[in-house]
Specification:
Number of strands: 2
Order of helices and strands: EEHH
Largest sheet: 2 strands, antiparallel
Radius of gyration: 28 Å
Shape: rod-shaped
Distance between the termini: 41 Å
Mean pLDDT: 76
Strand content: under 5%
Low-confidence stretches: 7-12
Oligomer: single chain
Number of helices: 2
Number of domains: 1
Strand order of the largest sheet: 1-2
Structural class: mainly alpha
């Protein structure tokens, strides 16, 4: 795991993994770029999943309303002597 230096650690030069920018070789730079690319891809995937979750909110609301309607119908089918049920208040 790479440690990101705090902004106070910067003194005019970019420090990567404890080395000055000048000391980063081609292989190290390629490895860093690959790691950044993989992190970027992972973040894009997480964002897609979060966006999909937001799209489900109206569906969840409708399912909740449908469930309450079906519950009301079931109690109505039991007649006037149906069980006394105290519902939690939706928060």
């Amino acid at each position: 795991m790479h440690r990101v230096p705090s902004p106070l650690a910067y003194r005019g030069e970019l420090i990567i993994g404890g080395m000055d920018r000048k000391e980063v070789g081609d292989r190290q730079l390629d490895a860093l770029l690959e790691r950044l690319d993989s992190l970027t891809a992972e973040l894009k995937g997480l964002n897609r999943r979060l966006d999909a979750g937001e799209n489900l909110a109206p569906l969840v609301y409708e399912l909740r309303a449908l469930n309450e309607s079906l519950t009301a119908l079931a109690y109505a089918a039991l007649g006037q002597q149906g069980p006394q049920v105290r519902r939690r208040r939706a928060s």
